Amino acid sequence: xxxxxxxxxxxxxxxxxxxxxxxxxxxxxxxxxxxxxxxxxxxxxxxxxxxxxxxxxxxxxxxxxxxxxxxxxxxxxxxxxxxxxxxxxxxxxxxxxxxxxxxxxxxxxxxxxxxxxxxxxxxxxxxxxxxxxxxxxxxxxxxxxxxxxxxxxxxxxxxxxxxxxxxxxxxxxxxxxxxxxxxxxxxxxxxxxxxxxxxxxxxxxxxxxx
Length: 210
Prior knowledge:
Layout: E1 2-5, H1 9-18, E2 24-27, H2 30-39, E3 46-50, H3 51-58, H4 62-70, E4 77-81, H5 86-95, E5 100-103, H6 111-122, H7 133-138, H8 141-155, H9 159-173, H10 185-208
Parallel strand pairs: 1-2, 1-3, 3-4, 4-5
């Protein structure tokens, strides 16, 4: 099991999508990360966290003291930092020599492989299906959102209904989409976008509330 500490929903989704076959506990703050560590005592194989979260859970030996109290080994940590956060990383490394950090860059097509390699070096039993990673990683934000909404529609049993609705409109208006495969998913995306964003906002509020 993996613990991911990242407050940015878009970034956490990208990081989770790469680890598409692992069970991941996602939190949005250092405090929540420590709570999850206590809740899932001894079950976390590795912690992946942004630089600020790493600083939050390792400062003043908080993580070490908590693990000692729980009588468990301190899980290995992979820190993720972005451009401009190098000073934070440098300070953490000075105080905790065993931390491994990886620069996050959405434009770096090699990031997924670097990310997987870094985790496997600390968690050798990592299971990953790499067949779809490159395609998902390089997809634009809008393309990925459309895929997400399509998956959500399927999960909720609404895809078939949406396809029938689209097909009915096509028959009446002689639209260019003539089958389920060519249904106008982009239009469906914008129709449910408001509800989808409300859902993400609600999830963000739940995970980030102190």
